[in-house]
Amino acid sequence: MGEASVKTLETRTDVSSHPVTGSEHRPVPERALLTRLRSPRRPRIWFEILLIAVSYWTYSLIRNAVPEQKAAALANADWIWNAERALGIAVEESVNHAVNSVTWLIVGMNYYYATLHFVVTIGVLVWIYRFHPGRYAATRLVLFATTGVALVGYYLYPLAPPRLMNGQNFIDTVLVHHTWGSMASGNLKHMSNQYAAMPSMHIGWSLWCGLTIFAVASAPWARILGLLYPTVTLVVIVATANHFWLDAVGGMLCLTFGYAVSRAWFGSLPHRLPRHPEHTEPHPATALLVRFRR
Questions:
Q1: Where is this region: Disordered (predicted)?
Q2: What is the value of pTM for the model shown?
Q3: Residue pLDDT, tens place only, 201-252
């Protein structure tokens, strides 16, 4: 009887020495959720399609909502042109006229400018999603951050493309050759802000594609094509009189910002992350929905 009382007392003492706190029953701490958001994981196709669709719609809405400050845009174009002359790199007009004299070449460039900007970018996203899922979120973040900071440039620095400058002899190749393409030419010009040339997202996106392919692809020919793509794009945007050389520099700076954001969030550049995620937990967005439903 005495021994039983002692054991009962000891058991009660042990239980009381380890009080249960509310923190032990917390479902998912905020810090743990943040860690999950920042760690590579397998993307979910429905979430990615929705995210890309909403993001591009928002980008187009904001870009086209930026007021078309024609006077300021033309003044900035004159400043850019004079700055390039002072630097000895103002060859856009010569390139524009030289390429325009070869009909099949300039027509091909018009279609290149209008289509590959979207086709190649989406293709690279799908490729990374399918074959490098562990690097997908970081690679996507680079693209999104690059595009987001470009919107700031459109708002703060309206710029007319060379083909819309006054007193210059640039050729609007889409109008001259009646090719479908530019949203800022012909019947489609009222659907897009014509004075959002700085920075050039044709360069920002194509360089993102090229660097991603070069850093991740294993086939030498693919890596070469990755480097050629932004190089050809640079020639195209100048030959079609849609951008100055310095617009391309603006696009490169935006891409640098995009890589900096991605590295700060994931702790590494995209190509240095594991090709496949180490675990396949539910997507953070799915986890949040489950928690809200509870």
A1: 1-24
A2: 0.78
A3: 999 999 999 999 999 999 999 999 999 999 999 999 999 999 999 999 999 9
